Amino acid sequence: MPTIDDRFAAAAPLPPRLPRLHDLATDLWWSWDTRARAMFRHLDTSLWHQTSHNPVRMLQRMSAARLQAAAQDPAFLAMYDEAVRARDSECELTHPWWAEHGRTLKGGTVAYFSAEFALHPSLPIYAGGLGVLAGDHCKEASALGVPLVGIGFMYPQGYFHQRMSPTGWQEERYERLTWTEAPIAAAFTPDGRACTVQVPLGDRTVHAAVWCVRLARVRLYLLDTDVPENAPWDRELSARLYGGDRDTRLQQEAVLGVGGVLALRALGVSPTVWHLNEGHAGFVIFERLRECRDRGDSFDDALADVRAHTVFTTHTPVAAGHDAFAFAQVERSLASCWRDRDGDREHFLALGAYDNGHGPQFNMTALAMRGAAHINGVSQLHGAVTRDMWAPLWPDTPASARPVRAITNGVHVPTWLATPISELITRYAGAGWLDRNDDSAIWDALLEIPDGELWAARTRQRHDLFAFIRERLRSRWVDDHVTPNRIVAAGAMLDPDVLTIGYARRFTAYKRPELIFHDAERLARLVTRIGRPVQIVFAGKAHPADEPAKHHLQRVFQHCLDPTFGGRIAFIDDYDMLVARYLVHGCDVWLNNPRKPLEASGTSGMKAAMNGVPHLSIGDGWWAEGYTGDNGWLISAATDPSDQTATDAADADALYMLLETDVVPRFYAREPDGTPRDWLRVVRQAMRTSLVRFSTRRMLKQYVVEMYGPASSAPVQ
Ligand SMILES: *Cc1c(COP(=O)(O)O)cnc(C)c1O
Q1: Residue 607 contacts residue 416 (beta carbons within 8 Å)
Q2: Which of 387, 596, 667, 699 has CB 3.0 to 4.6 Å from 410, enough for a Cys bridge?
Q3: Nearest to 576 by CA among 149, 281, 241, 317
């Protein structure tokens, strides 16, 4: 496996004045620091674009002459020195909040397990919201200085890339990651060996290599079974995220849970808090019980110990989102956890027993809930829904006493805030405000920004979005030779000065992607009105196994081809972090219309709101607590939610009403200087409320105080 140095072995050597360039390029910290990004862009702007903003690839290709020139360019040197200084202070300075609250962790370390992490488009090891949340959590831990290590999977083929067939059927393509160009390196044990683990899986042993991703203070360790010691089918185990059949999924989860604990032990990391992000990582509990049993604890003592130090976050009220397996299947892969100790087989298997209406099965969420003393949902509403949904786990316990808290999700502000908005806030709130982004003093600074400046920033972001869409279209036209009508469906006729609604999320039935087409004639009138038209940009993938979702996607795509809508509805393929970034920066309104209460939180709306893109949403997930009356719009209709047909009709009507009577007129009502005063009032409130309340800064502080602190306080045995 390549180490950092191997990756640059064939590259031009660094000039003595720039010794830290490779170091900066291989620490993803650069990706959320505007100074570091500007530094790499300045180094060679065209190469920066050609390599899709991947500084590892860029430095591999740069000529010695070009590097020498940079070493003599005073403007570049100032940027370089500033980036080095900023990176070092991120790693070394104690954050004032941590100085005050760090004691609660008693010097311990948090191990954060997740099946996916979204960090940067150059590392495609995520599918969607769960991964973005995990990535944002780790980045924030670096800024606050929370001692945290992440554990996940290195999927050599990652998640699929989406292309659309001429009839709008989703095609899935997998690409192999080029290791040497990714920001990852082998992880080393304290005695200097490349770390590998041997995971017992049924009657065989699966080997996994361990990769390391650097995020300033935080390390992320990724398991990879694609190593020569493994049989071909075991090499494939970690090939793809959420690919394969049920048995592959179970074995992946065994490698993540059991292998993850083994990897931490081999790396010399001794966590005091074990945070399982979603049930996929539930087998951490099995492996830690095995450790306790091996050193002689009774099963009950072992379980009490493991529970006390385990934190579990559940992420969805949708039943299908909770993995469940046949007991025999679990036994086939994980029996080594209970060896042949009397009664242990029954005890271990009982931890996952749960009947969700299809007879008892081994349910990963039930395992995690029984194995963790600290449990939370991801919004206030989702906390309450979870207490109801899993009530059978706590028989005879009233809802208010069921041990599930709520910690509402947040997003990592430096990752998701557009540069024009960030610079604008800096002008009024002062440099360094990002590091105080949950300080309500920023509220007042936002009020001082003049309308003209705010509108200029918003307009620039919308124009950047359409430049991005156009270049993407050009590459589909040139490289994929798609037909002209598909270029129209992908946004060729969109106009950068028209009110733009964004709808981007995984395609799945409960999110109702087709709701806005409920009355096609009414929608057509809205989008094509002369003088104040509306355009809608869709994006999102359907899970490869979700047939109904693919049909929803196909119908949306066909609407994009329908001339009735005047070319004002478009679908952007291959939704990922990069597309998300442009959309949440550049749309005007962010639409979200799930079937309540199935959206546990949602985070794309938070990203949009802090960029001045107000939310237009059903009162589900974060919006149930985020809507204040003046920071966006609430789609609300009084119907019986069990009558889905009536609810869809009423929700669609409420959505059209809001668009017709408020959203559209407000956007197009302009002052003599061209600014939409009443519109900007909503924009400003959206930014103020989301920056402060829906950031990972606020979220992580809550995890530290409410979950990690108590989990660290239990005695470590
Ligand atoms: C933020 C994000 C999500 C999650 O957003 P939701 O509102 O939960 O759908 C999903 N995918 C990508 C690429 C994102 O950036």
Answers
A1: yes
A2: 699
A3: 241
* pLDDT tens-digit series, residues 221-264: 999 999 999 999 999 998 888 877 899 999 999 999 999 999 99
Ligand 1 near 580 CB (within 6 A): yes
Q: Which amino acid is at 588?
A: D
- Cα dihedral sign for 622, 623, 628, 631? positive
Confidence of residue 717 (pLDDT cuts 50, 70, 90): low
Query: At 44, is the secondary structure helix, strand, or coil?
Result: coil
Residue whose CA is at the smallest distance from ligand 1 atom 12:
128
pLDDT at site 716: 58
H helices of 245-315, where? 246-254, 260-267, 283-294, 299-308
The reply to whether 418-694 shares the fold of 108-161+171-409+701-713 is yes
The CATH code of the domain at 108-161+171-409+701-713 is 3.40.50.2000
Cα dihedral 580, 585, 586, 589, rounded to 10, equals 90
Mutate to test the pocket of ligand 1, among 505, 572, 573, 584 (most ligand atoms within 8 A of CB): 505
- Which CATH homologous superfamily contains domain 418-694? Glycogen Phosphorylase B; (3.40.50.2000)
Task: Look at the block and give the residue holding tokens 């490869």.
Answer: 544
For residue 20, count CB atoms less than 10 angstroms from its CB and return exposed for 0-12, middle for 13-18, buried for 19 or more: middle
Average pLDDT over residues 501-520: 97
The count of other CB atoms within 10 Å of the CB of residue 66 is 14
Residues in the chain, how many? 717
CA 687 to chain centre: 20
Angle at 172 between CA 606 and CA 1, to 5 degrees: 85
For residue 1, is pLDDT > 80? no
Q: What torsion, rounded to 10 degrees, do the Cα atoms 432, 436, 439, 443 define?
A: 40
513 C-beta closer than 6 A to ligand 1: no
User: How far does the chain reach from its first CA to its final CA, in angstroms?
Assistant: 36
**Ligand 1 contact, 129 CB (< 6 A):** yes
Domain boundaries, the chain: 4-92, 108-161+171-409+701-713, 418-694
What is the phi/psi pair of residue 579, to 5°?
-60, -40
When pLDDT is cut at 50, 70 and 90, the band that residue 5 belongs to is low
**Which residue type, as a one-letter code, is found at position 681?**
R
CB proximity list for 66: less than 8 A, separation 6 or greater: 12, 44
Residue 601 CA: nearest ligand 1 atom is 8
Rounded CA separation 500/512 (Å): 19
Calculate helix-pair angle for 451-475, 577-586, nearest 10 degrees: 140
Report how far ligand 1's centroid is from the alpha carbon of 606 (Å). 10
Kindly state the DSSP code that residue 160 receives in the 8-state scheme.
P
For the Cβ of 654 lying below 6 angstroms from any atom of ligand 1, the answer is no
Across the chain, mean pLDDT equals: 95
